[in-house]
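About this split. The held-out portion is used to measure sequence recovery: a designer receives only the structure tokens and must propose an amino acid at every position. Recovery is the fraction of positions where the proposal matches the reference. Here is one held-out target exactly as it appears in the evaluation file.
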């Protein structure tokens, strides 16, 4: 028996037709009924173009209502959306479009010109689609939880991006797991400052439909716009990455957020302890979480009741998920393995990656971590970035965290360098916040890091190598 549920948007539009589904910062508001109507119209226009069940359709867009219409429209047709990062180069986009077998590309109006250079035959902007006639189509009334909803590529931080297949069930269970952890409140309004082409933004857009909860959508991250929304717009939950928390706390200064703001969900990368402490001092409810594209958003989250006691931990696996650490010998740190119905069934036609990553239903994440005596997860670093020096394991993110705690340092990247004596030694790349000398940095590290972890070389740089998801790419750190 296959599991089917009613189409989620149709269902929510039936249950709460006049309830707000999307609020934009320009004041635009869309109800669930309007979202259903506009998405179904969009689906009939796509039918006119020849898009049908099983078509693979690229979507290249910043956060905006037509992008959500496109995503829902494809689900009404049983077609598969391939969500593309707007910051990729044309070569990278061409690779993903081809790899995912996309035959159509739908783009935001502002990106049409760039998109016209891409190697897809049929490219249509949202406004092009708007003026098309509608063609009668049989729209899906149910969603099969095992069917493919979207393909989305990993960030490419450790290698070539891989196309993660998300089923409707992955999103359904992600929404269930999150609700069982954070709880649902009638007043909830979830702010999305992160792109919908990433899993955090996409999964929140779907949670909105499943919960009947409005999202407050920003076209792109802007610290002032996020601050304003948090202060004035009744936002209760917001998803962020580390850099955003830093900037938001700076803007907040001595003020405090309204008490309706119950959760600042932090994910996507390491969270330096100094930052978490700063948030704690200001009574700002930052919840650490851990997840990846493959897990359809967070799979481990620190629950509100434990947030203060377990600072630095990513928490426990969500209710429908499991977590274990695969350790070697007597080391407590090992690879993080996860399992659950929100975890992808695999990468799109990447058999070798699938064989490598999936074992008996468990996904080997490529991340290292450990569990404390109460079973709370601490994420340590990526396995590929581990530095082994004289037989000791060194985790670059620990060193980066200490360095970025120094007020003269804006950010730091650490990688290993071959060394005749030790095998490898850590070296650091520093972006200054204000004037500082290497001697001062060394002095700062004396009492904070064991000798073998102290970088042997320091380089001042203007910025660190980052990918299109703004993540530090350590294997590109060089001088
Ligand atoms: P690729 O898989 O192509 O190398 P990526 O892993 O950066 O890229 P994403 O799926 O965007 O692609 O990111 C997920 C990764 O982000 C996790 O595997 C982990 O390394 C990192 N991450 C997420 N949450 C945390 C966290 N709380 N602490 C540390 N790292 C985290
Ligand atoms: Mg990854």
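Reference sequence for scoring:
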């Amino acid at each position: 028996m296959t599991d089917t549920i009613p189409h989620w948007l149709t269902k929510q539009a039936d249950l709460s037709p006049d309830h707000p589904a999307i609020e934009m910062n320009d004041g635009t508001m869309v109800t669930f009924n309007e979202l259903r109507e506009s998405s179904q119209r969009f689906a009939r226009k796509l039918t006119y173009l020849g898009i049908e069940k099983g078509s693979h359709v690229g979507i290249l867009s910043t956060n905006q209502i037509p992008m959500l219409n496109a995503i829902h429209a494809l689900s009404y047709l049983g077609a598969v959306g391939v969500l593309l990062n707007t910051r990729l180069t044309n070569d990278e986009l061409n690779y993903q479009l081809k790899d995912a077998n996309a035959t159509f590309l739908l783009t935001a109006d502002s990106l049409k010109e760039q998109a016209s250079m891409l190697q897809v035959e049929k490219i249509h902007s949202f406004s092009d689609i708007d003026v098309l006639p509608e063609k009668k189509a049989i729209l899906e009334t149910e969603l099969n939880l095992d069917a493919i909803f979207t393909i989305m590529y990993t960030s490419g931080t450790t290698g070539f991006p891989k196309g993660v297949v998300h089923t409707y069930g992955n999103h359904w269970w992600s929404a269930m797991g999150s609700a069982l952890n954070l709880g649902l409140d009638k007043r909830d309004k979830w702010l999305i400052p992160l792109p919908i082409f990433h899993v955090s933004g996409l999964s929140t857009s779907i949670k909105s439909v499943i919960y009947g909860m409005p999202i407050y959508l920003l076209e792109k991250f802007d610290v002032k716009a996020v601050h304003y929304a948090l202060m004035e717009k009744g936002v209760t939950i917001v998803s962020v990455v580390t850099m955003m928390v830093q900037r938001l706390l700076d803007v907040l200064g001595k003020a405090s957020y309204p008490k309706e703001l119950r959760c600042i969900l932090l994910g996507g990368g390491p969270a330096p302890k100094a930052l978490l402490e700063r948030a704690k001092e200001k009574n700002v409810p930052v919840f650490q979480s851990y997840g990846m594209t493959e897990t359809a958003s967070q799979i481990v989250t620190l629950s509100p009741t434990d947030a203060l006691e377990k600072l630095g931990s990513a928490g426990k696996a969500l209710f429908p998920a499991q977590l274990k650490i695969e350790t070697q010998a007597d080391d407590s740190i090992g690879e993080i393995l996860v399992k659950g119905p929100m975890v992808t069934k695999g990468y799109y036609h990447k058999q070798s990656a699938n064989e490598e990553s999936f074992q008996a239903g468990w996904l080997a994440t490529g991340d290292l971590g450990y569990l404390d005596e109460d079973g709370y997860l601490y994420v340590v670093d990526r396995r590929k970035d581990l530095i082994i020096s004289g037989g000791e394991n060194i985790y670059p993110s620990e060193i980066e965290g200490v360095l970025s705690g120094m007020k003269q340092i804006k950010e730091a990247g650490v990688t290993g360098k071959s060394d005749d004596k030790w095998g490898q030694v850590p070296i650091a790349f520093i972006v200054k916040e204000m004037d500082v000398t290497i001697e001062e940095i060394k002095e700062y590290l004396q009492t904070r890091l064991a000798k073998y972890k102290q970088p042997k070389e320091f380089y001042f740089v203007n910025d660190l190598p980052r990918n299109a998801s703004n993540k530090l790419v350590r294997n590109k750190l060089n001088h």
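Annotator remark: Residues 154, 292, 366 surround magnesium ion (ligand 2) (CB under 6 Å).
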